[in-house]
Amino acid sequence: MIVDLHNHTKLCNHAEGEISEYIEKAIECNIKYFGFSEHAPMNFDEKYRIGFHQMKEYEQSIIDAKEKYKNSIEILLGYEVDYLKGYMDERVLNADVDYLIGSVHFIEEWGFDNPEFIGNYKDQDIDLIWQKYFDAIEEMAKSKLFDIVGHLDLIKIFKYMPSKNINKIAKNALLAIKEADMSVEINVAGFRKPIGEAYPSLSLLKEIKKLSIPITFASDAHKPEQVGLYSDEATQMAKSAGYNECVLYRKRKRKFIKF
User: Fold this and answer.
1) Model confidence over 91-141: pLDDT tens digits?
2) Closest Cα partner for 248 from 98, 94, 31, 67?
3) Which member of 46, 98, 146, 197 lies 3.0 to 4.6 Å from 102 by CB, making a disulfide possible if both were Cys?
4) How far is it, in rounded angstroms, from Cα 4 to Cα 94?
5) For residue 174, how many C-alpha atoms fall within 13 Å in the half-sphere facing its CB?
């Protein structure tokens, strides 16, 4: 991966390591464009994100790192924003950043990807929660607030798989992503989870390619040693789907990069 836009810092309260350690690992992995996209603040699930009072500190720390490492790597600044009605905040949506990742981590305020709440699955209709999840992705895309779709099929994280065809469940969400002119990240964090594969699946990625939706790449690192892991798998997956370029963002403007 020469582009890696989705990575975290210890400010989110569930990541480790210093910003410099992430960057130095990225340089070691020959990443040319490295982005931080911290979990944006909101007045919900505060335990796993920065606070509003930390936005300036976070942004300035990344700007400082950008200057410090400018001769070795390009550092980019973003936020990963939870799409959750009633909780998104203009201070985040209007932040002076390079890009915003829109992610769905909650189904009706249930943090379905949090191991703390995995027990909730036993009471769920799996087909229904998959549909609710992709309905939320569709709504997120239609909001046109974001540049990148975060970990598109995150709902598969614990391998509770639907009986219905996943590509059909996701169809309207993909059409909305296309209409919103967003890109989709190939996020390798899934290799570190029970599902054991990237987000999205290769099958979904091929559908994304059919719609000519751009892609980007993401380590989704919460530790410096996770930067660049599975980069060969991610690149090969993209090529298998027919891609030979990815995107990055500067000040919310998209640029294509060959890989």
Assistant:
1) 999 999 999 999 999 998 999 999 999 999 999 999 999 999 999 999 999
2) 98
3) 146
4) 23
5) 21
Residues 181 and 213: beta-carbon distance below 8 Å: no
Q: CA end-to-end span of the chain, whole Å?
A: 8
List the structure tokens of 150.
């975060």
Three-class secondary structure assignment of the chain: CCEECCECCHHHCCCCCCHHHHHHHHHHCCCCEEEEEEECCCCCCHHHCCCHHHHHHHHHHHHHHHHHCCCCCEEEEEEEEECCCCCCCHHHHCCCCCEEEEECCCECCECCCCHHHHHHHHHCCHHHHHHHHHHHHHHHHHHCCCCEECCCCHHHCCCCCCCCCHHHHHHHHHHHHHHCCCEEEEEHHHHHCCCCCCECCHHHHHHHHHCCCCEEEECCECCHHHCCCCHHHHHHHHHHCCCCEEEEEECCEEEEEEC
**Looking at this protein, which amino acid is placed at residue 102?**
G
Mean pLDDT (the chain, rounded) = 97
What is the tens place of the pLDDT at every residue in 131-182? 999 999 999 999 999 999 999 999 999 999 999 999 999 999 999 999 999 9
Structure tokens at 238: 């993209």
